[in-house]
Amino acid sequence: MPDDDLTNKLLRRGGRASATELDKLAKELTQAKLAEFNDAMHRGTIDRPVRVITLSEGQTVPARVKGYITQERFILDRTPREMREILGLKSIDLITGARVLAITQVLLLNDFENKGYTHLPGGQVWTSTSAYPPGRGAGQWNLLREVTVSLIQDVPPGERYRRGLSDRASK
C-alpha cells in the first residue's frame, strides 16, 4: 500500500509532488501490484496476470512468454474481438481466436513495468503514428523477462472466454 503520510502530504499540497516523491509512489504502487499478482496467481482469482496471444492452427502452447500482460478480469466473458478492442491490439490480432495463458511463475519487482491502461498504448499518448490503437482501458504491464505460463483456454472467434471451462460446463 502507498505510504499514507506521503499521500496526505501530497493532498495538502494540491497534488504537487517532487520527482523523488513520484518515484517513491510509483515504486510503492508497483510493489502493491506485485503482491496482488502473486496472491491472485496462488489463489487463481480473476486478478491473476494473463497473456493473450493470437490462436493459430497447429501452434504449440508456449511454456514461457514475455511482453504485455493484463489481468484476467479485463477479458472475462469477452470474445476475441472484444478482447482486441479492450486491449488495444492491431486489427489483425485475434482474428483466428485468442489463446489465454496464465502466468504461473512468481513475479519479482524487476520482472515487469507498469504501462498504465490500454487507452494509452504502451503507456504513451496515442497519435496517428502509434504502432497500436488505443484500447478501452484495461490495465497493462510489460513483462521484461520470460516467465512460465500455462494454458487457461483457447477461445475461437465469436466464442466467449470462460476461465477455461468447456462450453457445456459454462452454460
Tell me what the structure shows.
The protein has 171 residues and is an alpha+beta fold. The chain has one domain (47-170). The chain is 27% helix and 25% strand. The chain is globular and about 55 Å long.
Explain briefly what this protein structure is.
With 171 residues, this protein is an alpha+beta fold. 27% of the residues lie in helices and 25% in strands.
Could you outline the blueprint of secondary structure elements for this entry?
Elements: H1 4-12, H2 19-43, E1 49-54, E2 64-71, H3 80-87, E3 98-103, E4 112-117, E5 139-155, H4 167-170
Antiparallel strand pairs: 1-2, 1-3, 2-5, 3-5, 4-5
The helix content is 25-40%
Structural class: alpha+beta
The first-to-last residue Cα distance is 38 Å
Q: Give the ordered list of helices and strands.
A: HHEEHEEEH
Q: What is the mean predicted local confidence, pLDDT?
A: 89
Features:
alpha+beta; 171 residues; disordered C terminus; single chain; globular; 5-stranded antiparallel β-sheet
